[in-house]
Amino acid sequence: MRHLMSPLDFSVEELDRLLDLANDIEKYPEKYAHACDGKKLATLFYEPSTRTRLSFEAAMMNLGGNIFGFSSAASSSAAKGESVSDTIRMVSCYADICAMRHPKEGAPMVASAVSSIPVINAGDGGHQHPTQTLTDLLTIRSLKGRLDHLVIGLCGDLKFGRTVHSLVRALARYEHVTFVFISPEELKVPEYIKEDVLDAENIPYKEVERIEDVMPELDILYMTRVQRERFFNEEDYIRLKDFYILNNKKMKLAKEDMIVMHPLPRVNEISVEVDKDPRAAYFRQVQYGVYVRMALILTLLEVNVC
Ligand code: CP
């Protein structure tokens, strides 16, 4: 039995197969409509979510399976003090697979240690968000045609943004990928990512504060929201929240085939005027999230569709 805690749980070859499966699902959805008949997915969300929870639920329903779960700690027995370990022992009796989001880093890992069903990390604190990374990889491969030879700008809250931490780890495994980290001083990418992932593998990167200075060199611009829920004080959040606002004027500086991605939700960091730009890929990214989660469920449940 396999769990998914980090995008690195899959080898590059396994990831390729997963993304190929997601592309096949996109092309031939009817082929997969009953692949999970009789199977149940539990969504255990101790933290708010729109996309991740609903796309997991849509994914399982598209496969013919059933879903149940909770969308906040307050509506589960966590509010009475039940531990994650005890909760997953219960859920293992009810479901075939589960997706868990938790504000504490490592909580899905704790669950996986005692679970008798596959556990998927659907985001743990500021740590990792592997299924967003699968979504991002599928989006990049589908829209750019490759996962190597890319210059990727990551902009905004690179300190607390778990999607950034997961994506950097995943893309660092491909040839000739260069990272451009665009953030204010207070929200720089953590040292452990730079040392353990980038320096360790001699992967080129630079850190800048002004988005305008690097726009022309990017193949992908990955925007992120300033993570209000992870700040220790409101004053710092208010000072930094509108540090970057991508608008049409800044988009004029970018390559014609650059794509703009965002894990969403967005707050102010991408002006709505950019939505009409053909390079805005963030809503297409959401659709890819359903295909890739369908592929992930099939893979972890070891369901083969001929
Ligand atoms: N991208 C993402 O994780 O969105 P949600 O928080 O809405 O799930």
Keyphrases for this structure?
306 residues, alpha/beta, five-stranded parallel sheet, four-stranded parallel sheet, 36% helix, globular, binds phosphoric acid mono(formamide)ester
Q: What does this entry look like structurally?
A:
With 306 residues, the protein is an alpha/beta fold. Helices cover 36% and strands 15% of the residues. The chain is built from 10 helices and 9 strands. The chain has helices spanning 12-27, 51-62, 84-94, 107-114, 130-144, 162-171, 191-198, 234-240, 248-251, 282-300, and strands at residues 40-45, 66-70, 97-102, 119-124, 150-155, 177-182, 205-208, 220-223, 259-261. The strands form 2 sheets. Strands 7-6-5-8-9 form a 5-stranded parallel sheet, covered by helices on one side. It has a 4-stranded parallel sheet with strand order 2-1-3-4, with helices on both faces. Helix 2 (51-62) crosses helix 10. The chain is globular, with a radius of gyration of 19 Å. The model has no long low-confidence stretch (mean pLDDT 95). Bound molecules: phosphoric acid mono(formamide)ester (CP). Phosphoric acid mono(formamide)ester binds at residues 49-52, 123, 132, 263-265.
Brief summary of the model shown:
The chain is 36% helix and 15% strand.
